[in-house]
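Box 3.1. Reading complex inputs
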Amino acid sequence: MTQRTDDKQKPEILSQQIVAQSRLFKVEQLELRFSNGEERIYERMRGSNRGAVMIIACPDPEHLYLVREYCAGTHDYQLGFPKGLIDPGEDILTAANRELKEEIGFGARRFVQLKSLALAPGYFNATMHLVLAFDLYAEQQAGDEPEPLELVRWARQESAALLQQADFTEARSVAALLLAQHYLEANPDVFKQTAGASEDHRP
Amino acid sequence: MTQRTDDKQKPEILSQQIVAQSRLFKVEQLELRFSNGEERIYERMRGSNRGAVMIIACPDPEHLYLVREYCAGTHDYQLGFPKGLIDPGEDILTAANRELKEEIGFGARRFVQLKSLALAPGYFNATMHLVLAFDLYAEQQAGDEPEPLELVRWARQESAALLQQADFTEARSVAALLLAQHYLEANPDVFKQTAGASEDHRP
């Protein structure tokens, strides 16, 4: 019951081929043989493998910044933390600071990496790095958004109310909120620290 | 800064068409005009809209059940909560009980719905309903898994260690763990309740 993943023999990939492709998406079909001899056809999405960042920006100890943004998948506006793909050659924190400037008009002088999350690993190989941002300063950078995002300043003690918002449901934003709250409760002194000392608290 | 989503004017869909399709995936292209006049091309995945369930099964007040399962997207074994698509005509709790029987060999007599999560709403319209399961009983049901899933019994007080597992990273499982812990800490009497009284605690 406590066998480690490393002990498990992965299925053998008998064949793999791209079976559908659009501007953004590439679907790959895998023919697999499991270690017990069972054979199956699976499909997965091929991504850019560049990774993405999601930023929980803290303007002060009592608040978090969210954005409300149009989402084509659901064709409505959704509330969540600022996020975006890492550009080629960028490191995680550079990408986090750029996305913050593009999406909410703030940069940050100090970051803490919380955890890296996967999106439905059965179908994707997509990683999103959660980053807390402190010591904010006003700086707007032009992004590729078709319209300015709505900035929402949320009181941290109202996180139960945030979880009840009908438009705050993205799994990665929900996980980010709860992980950020755990971190901030366990590290109340993080707001007193000086800039320039970025920390890595990833498990 | 606290404008409600309802006030926001959605972009107008000027055209929509399927631009790529495989056995499992269907990619739709949208031509959009935002309320400020900006026009953009977006792509999104068309899903089954049947929804999915993820089940946090509690054999006793101190433990949770996880499964370790092959994930084609990452081509490795990942740890997470049992989950699966809702079959046509099934309600959420019937699907939850069926998936439990198929994936871990237990049914449950009592359920609590926690929250419904979205998967990357920018690209998908996929909803996963998180369900806590209590009063478990042994019952195996045949599923379509190519191999039996590895069952992992995890001590609730070791949730920080679970968050540090390199193979426990799916955003929906991370959110489920943290939401379940909040619920169970706030409702310690849930284990003393009698069967048959399913509750709906969705926000």
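In summary: Chain B has two domains: 7-46, 52-200.
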